[in-house]
């Protein structure tokens, strides 16, 4: 098997050096009945060509956004990824490194994390950011748990239309804790935090003044969730929040059928000791040169065990790298321009769809995603559109459809969408 | 008159009338290494003997400091947050983390004096 | 020697002189570079139409740098040269299974048909993706003898959470909510106690100090400490092989006792590499375990993620797992949600799991085959025992051989000379190795946990052994001073973690 460098000779030499006659003697502590002699239902090893053929055929069974007009968003977005991003993240030194626990031989990964943390802090208007979490949904759940620790209160309030996956994950995480509850509405004196998503699940942007005031009155923390991070190039900074968290997939990462994506997490400096996840900090080496290390690790599971702020170990290292490279390429002007291009594409799409008989724009304000109302059941229409090679959006309950446009959306795509949808609605 | 007592969890206590000043012993400081953070208790908090009073952190460890008695926190050493070197000072000087108003003085009876504590630490590995 | 070209640099500022020696590069932060007047991505010019966001446009400076494409590429490539990786050399990091990462997996995960599909696309348009996940579920079910598989968890720690929440859900729906206590040995990964607490459980620790294993007596003591029949025990969290590199000899008896008391056995699958293809955890009493695809199934660690930690359960626990699970209906693959799985604990992650990692893992499994995987486990165990046999006389070896896929030594013999475990780690950095895991497990002092994996040649292992033996010899002869300054040839010498923690600087800022 090609991944194994041992030879018959080297195996024999090692067995002799150990002083056993075969490898099963090394397994003497394992109960006899736990051994299995072969797997009837699993195949033998295969060459690279054979595996490539099989799995490529699986890939070809899927309809990819690269091949069809594509208007689906709802928390994962189809954006362009510059070639340099895909090239650099495949470098061995990043791809096959471990968590930078030995900082002297991991300064590359560490400086990247430091730059990533800076990008997130700047974008969200917060003081500090961590090295990333699994995804937007778990990041949101971790924010709620953190708010409960900080305020020593156990009620989480959802203030507007939170992504249903985020809501589900929040329910699972918070539901584990005794006496903890999740409610919709407004905060009171028992509330640990209010969660506001912007743009919300229907694509509508929100200001935070109202919620900031409510939080100040009740002592709750304001948690802002962003699941289309490109929107931060056009919408006001969520700097007034106590915690800003969400999904960074839009910058540098493909949708990959749902993962791996990038949970980002930023907050005010006074809260850092309650933050979940890894943190990279600046320091100096024995010669006084600037360097970076993982720091404040006494919050984490490997030291604090049952008193840790979270059980999380990993960050999404390589995803954070992709994000950082893409952000570096975009820069200040490029990022703002990208945001505008997304918004303008959505405006064009909205205008075009409104022209169709029976289609109404349901959300007046939006960033790159909005809701339209159809004369028929949206789920059925999405399925028919898919048969006609258009990925038409995300069907909400009843006749409502959530559609999205990005810089990838061409005028040709919009034209095709309009003509196919017109035909389907006839 | 005040006296210094020790626990086997390596707290040292200066008993000053009905107030106990709580710090950590030299042995504990050496085991921890350089202290990077101290989490102080809130003034007014009621503690039972054995409750977590503070956390002293080094780079790789977080050591809990436990209250040796029932009582109320009447003062926390806020200077320590900005001057971590204070942790290393004697409890009777800058090295106290918090002061507790003792509710039940009888709980102090089992504590070690310096001689006994030194014997105790010599026998630890 | 002239000092004119020496790099002078302090912690907060730019380089006053920049230079490289040989292949050693310096590289400043993006924010310290001169700001370009254009982006490194050429995007079309927007129309500039009025915004329809209902909010004022963000026009102020966000504080992002701006550099050209060649500068960006050079920036990240230069920094990459400061990293050690499995592609560089031996990486015997215990409990992390740093094995070779085949590039075939990368190539396949990047195919447009996998990379550019959306988790909410109609199922009819992603049958290939669902088939792949379905097959991965089958492989994992076969290899663990645990037929319920959920691929959702994003990493090992989330797999643990999924596993423990599955147990909790099962107890709740079977009127066993009085079970509040979880047993775990003191040698467990830190995630185990952290996870138990996240689930709202109370932790009871079993001491393994003397032998590195859980004894039946200590286990019974913990199991029956607060009830006659263990009716307050929700389950146990045990890593097997355990974190001391040993197989828990009594594992079946422990599982039987636990099951008799009504508890479930969660197995931390971090060390599955010792067993894969040869021993099935379901056959030694495990009810639920997570599998780290980024360890056993060789998906790259990426400098700290992304990982993937699917869980595998018995038939009995399967209904309670998180959703979605991939199923099959009328020859069509489908995602099963709450409607199909009413007893599920719900969601743990947005969307369907770390799909791109699933692609890589299946590619690896297919490449190895069942026979190859068995050889993987055997070679991993053989290599660890070989290292142990060669080092056990030079270093303190707390536990008897044989070990499984990793072995423990400590600094007990050397530490009185002032050379301790951290010094060995840093000396290995100097000599071109990644160090082993140090100071874990925490049951002993100064532990060094060595996991060679099956993808290391004997030649490479021998070099490591030679270097370790040389260290021991030098120390024996009194040559200890140098150990405190290692590493010297790395891009940075020892870094001051105390400064970093006392005054955390976690981001660049202009002041």
Q: Could you characterize what this model shows?
A:
The complex is a heterotrimer of chains A (426), B (125) and C (511). Chain A is α/β, with parallel strands linked by helices and 426 residues long. Chain A is built from 12 helices and 13 strands. The termini of chain A are far apart. With 125 residues, chain B is α+β, with helices and mostly antiparallel strands. Chain B has 3 helices and 9 strands; from the N terminus they run βββαβββββαβα. Chain B has a 6-stranded antiparallel beta sheet. In chain B, strands 4-6-7 form a 3-stranded antiparallel beta sheet, with no helix packed on it. In chain B, a hairpin with a 2-residue loop joins strand 2 and strand 3. The N and C termini of chain B lie far apart (35 Å). Chain C is of the alpha/beta class. In chain C, strand 11 and strand 12 form a beta hairpin. Chains A and C meet through helix 1, helix 2, helix 3, helix 4 and helix 5 of A and helix 1, helix 2, helix 3, helix 4 and helix 5 of C.
Alpha-beta content class of chain C: alpha/beta
Looking at the overall shape, the CATH architecture of chain B is Beta Barrel
Q: Unreliable stretches of chain C, pLDDT < 50, 5 or more residues?
A: 1-13
Mean of pLDDT of chain B: 90
Overall radius of gyration of chain C: 26 Å
Tell me the layout of helices and strands.
The complex is a heterotrimer of chains A (426), B (125) and C (511).
Chain A: H1 8-18, H2 48-60, H3 83-89, H4 92-95, H5 107-124, E1 128-129, H6 136-151, E2 155-158, H7 164-175, E3 181-184, E4 191-197, H8 209-218, E5 221-226, E6 243-247, E7 263-267, E8 280-284, E9 290-294, H9 301-304, H10 317-354, E10 360-361, E11 369-373, H11 378-387, E12 394-395, E13 400-404, H12 411-425
Parallel strand pairs in A: 2-3, 2-4, 4-5, 5-6
Antiparallel strand pairs in A: 1-7, 6-7, 8-9, 10-11, 11-13, 12-13
Helix pairs in contact in A: 3-10, 5-10, 6-7, 10-12
Chain B: E1 2-6, E2 11-16, E3 19-24, H1 26-32, E4 35-39, E5 46-47, E6 52-58, E7 62-66, E8 71-76, H2 79-82, E9 98-102, H3 114-122
Antiparallel strand pairs in B: 1-2, 2-3, 3-9, 4-6, 5-8, 6-7, 8-9
Chain C: H1 69-80, H2 103-109, H3 112-115, H4 127-144, E1 148-150, H5 156-173, E2 181-185, H6 191-198, E3 202-206, H7 216-223, E4 233-239, H8 251-260, E5 264-268, E6 288-290, E7 311-313, E8 325-329, E9 332-336, H9 355-391, E10 407-410, H10 421-430, E11 437-438, E12 447-450, H11 458-476, H12 497-502
Parallel strand pairs in C: 2-3, 2-4, 4-5, 5-6
Antiparallel strand pairs in C: 1-7, 6-7, 8-9, 10-12, 11-12
Helix pairs in contact in C: 2-9, 4-9, 5-6, 7-8, 9-11
């Amino acid at each position: 098997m090609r991944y194994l460098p041992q030879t018959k000779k080297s195996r024999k030499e090692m067995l002799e050096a150990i002083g056993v006659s075969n490898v099963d003697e090394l397994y003497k502590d394992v109960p006899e009945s736990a051994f299995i002699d072969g797997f009837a239902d699993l195949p033998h090893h295969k060459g690279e060509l054979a595996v490539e053929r099989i799995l490529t055929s699986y890939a070809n069974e899927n309809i990819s956004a690269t091949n069809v007009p594509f208007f689906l968003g709802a928390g994962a977005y189809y954006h362009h990824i510059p070639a340099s991003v895909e090239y650099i993240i495949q470098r061995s030194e990043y791809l096959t490194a471990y968590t930078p626990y030995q900082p002297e031989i991991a300064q590359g990964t560490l400086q990247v994390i430091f730059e990533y943390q800076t990008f997130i802090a700047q974008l969200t208007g917060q003081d500090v950011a961590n090295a990333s979490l699994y995804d937007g949904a778990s990041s949101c759940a971790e924010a709620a748990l953190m708010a409960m620790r900080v305020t020593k209160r156990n009620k989480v309030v959802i203030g507007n239309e939170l992504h249903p996956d985020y809501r589900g994950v929040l329910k699972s995480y918070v539901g584990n804790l005794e006496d903890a509850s999740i409610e919709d509405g407004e905060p009171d004196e028992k509330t640990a935090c209010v969660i506001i998503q912007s743009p919300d699940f229907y694509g509508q942007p929100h200001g935070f003044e109202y919620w900031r005031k409510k939080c100040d009155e009740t002592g709750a923390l304001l948690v802002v969730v962003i699941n289309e991070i490109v929107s931060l190039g056009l919408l006001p900074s969520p700097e007034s929040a106590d915690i800003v968290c969400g999904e960074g997939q839009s910058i540098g990462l493909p949708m990959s059928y749902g993962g791996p994506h990038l949970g980002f997490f930023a907050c005010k400096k006074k809260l850092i000791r309650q933050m979940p996840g890894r943190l990279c900090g600046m320091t100096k080496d024995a010669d006084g040169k600037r360097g970076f290390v993982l720091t404040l690790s006494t919050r984490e599971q490997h030291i604090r065990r049952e008193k840790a702020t979270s059980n999380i170990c990993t960050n999404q290292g390589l995803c954070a790298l992709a994000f950082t490279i893409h952000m570096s390429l975009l820069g200040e002007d490029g990022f703002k321009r990208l945001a505008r291009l997304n918004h303008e594409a959505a405006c064009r799409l909205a205008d075009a769809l409104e022209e169709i008989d029976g289609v109404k724009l349901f959300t007046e304000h939006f960033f790159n995603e909005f809701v339209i109302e159809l004369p028929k059941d949206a789920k059925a229409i999405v399925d028919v559109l898919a048969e006609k090679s258009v990925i038409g959006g995300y069907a909400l309950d009843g006749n409502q459809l959530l559609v999205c446009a990005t810089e990838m959306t061409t005028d040709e795509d919009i034209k095709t969408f309009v003509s196919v949808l017109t035909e389907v609605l006839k | 008159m005040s006296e210094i007592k020790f626990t086997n969890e390596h707290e040292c206590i200066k008993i000053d009338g009905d107030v106990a000043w709580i710090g950590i012993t030299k042995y504990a400081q050496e085991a921890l290494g350089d202290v990077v953070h101290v989490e102080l208790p809130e003034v007014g908090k009621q503690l039972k003997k054995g409750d977590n009073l503070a956390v002293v952190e080094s780079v790789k460890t977080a050591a809990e400091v436990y209250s040796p008695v029932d009582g109320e926190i009447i003062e926390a050493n806020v200077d320590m947050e900005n001057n971590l070197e204070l942790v290393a000072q004697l409890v009777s000087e800058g090295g106290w983390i918090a002061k507790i108003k003792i509710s039940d003085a009888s709980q102090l009876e089992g504590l070690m004096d310096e001689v006994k504590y030194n014997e105790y630490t010599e026998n630890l590995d | 020697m002239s000092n004119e070209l020496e790099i002078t640099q302090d912690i907060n500022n730019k380089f006053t002189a920049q230079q490289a020696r040989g292949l050693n590069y310096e590289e400043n932060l993006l924010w310290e570079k001169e700001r370009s007047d254009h982006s490194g991505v050429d995007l079309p010019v927007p129309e500039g139409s009025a915004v329809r966001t209902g909010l004022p446009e963000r026009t102020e400076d966000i504080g992002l740098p701006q550099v050209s494409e060649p500068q960006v590429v050079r920036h990240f490539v230069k920094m990459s040269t400061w990293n050690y990786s499995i592609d560089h050399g031996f990486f015997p990091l215990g409990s992390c299974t740093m094995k070779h990462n085949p590039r075939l997996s990368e190539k396949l995960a990047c195919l447009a048909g996998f990379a550019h599909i959306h988790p909410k696309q109609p199922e009819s348009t992603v049958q290939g993706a669902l088939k792949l996940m379905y097959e991965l579920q089958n492989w994992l079910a076969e290899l663990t003898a645990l037929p319920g598989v959920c691929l959702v968890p994003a990493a090992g720690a989330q797999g643990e959470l999924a596993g423990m929440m599955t147990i909790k859900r099962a107890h709740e729906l079977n009127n066993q909510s009085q079970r509040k206590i979880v047993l775990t040995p003191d040698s467990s990964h830190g995630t185990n106690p952290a996870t138990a607490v996240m689930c709202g459980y109370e932790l009871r620790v079993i001491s393994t100090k003397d032998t590195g294993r859980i004894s039946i007596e200590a286990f019974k003591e913990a199991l029956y400490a607060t009830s006659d029949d263990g009716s307050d025990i929700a389950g146990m969290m045990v890593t097997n092989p355990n974190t001391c590199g040993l197989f828990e000899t009594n594992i079946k008896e422990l599982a039987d006792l636990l099951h008799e008391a009504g508890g479930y056995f969660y197995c931390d699958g971090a060390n599955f590499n010792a067993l894969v293809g040869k021993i099935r955890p379901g056959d030694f009493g495990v009810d639920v375990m997570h599998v780290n695809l980024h360890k056993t199934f060789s998906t790259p660690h990426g400098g700290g993620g992304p990982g993937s930690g699917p869980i595998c359960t018995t038939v009995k626990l399967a209904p309670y797992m998180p959703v979605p699970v991939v199923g099959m209906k009328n020859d069509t693959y489908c995602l099963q949600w709450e409607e199909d799985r009413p007893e599920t604990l719900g969601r743990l992650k947005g969307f369907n799991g770390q799909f791109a990692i699933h692609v890589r893992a299946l590619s690896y499994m297919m490449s190895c085959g069942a026979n190859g995987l068995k050889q993987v486990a055997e070679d991993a165990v053989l290599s660890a025992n070989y290292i142990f046999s060669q080092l056990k006389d030079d270093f303190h070896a707390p536990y008897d051989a044989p070990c499984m896929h990793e072995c423990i030594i400590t600094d007990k013999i050397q530490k009185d000379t002032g050379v301790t475990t951290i010094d060995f780690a840093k000396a290995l950095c100097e000599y071109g190795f990644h160090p082993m895991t140090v100071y874990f497990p925490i049951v002993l002092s100064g532990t060094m946990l060595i996991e060679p994996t099956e993808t290391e040649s004997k030649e490479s292992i021998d070099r490591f052994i030679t270097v370790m033996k040389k260290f021991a010899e030098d120390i024996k002869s009194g040559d200890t001073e140098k150990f405190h300054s290692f590493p010297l040839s790395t891009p940075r010498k020892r870094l001051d973690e105390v400064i970093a923690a006392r005054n955390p600087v976690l981001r660049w800022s202009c002041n």
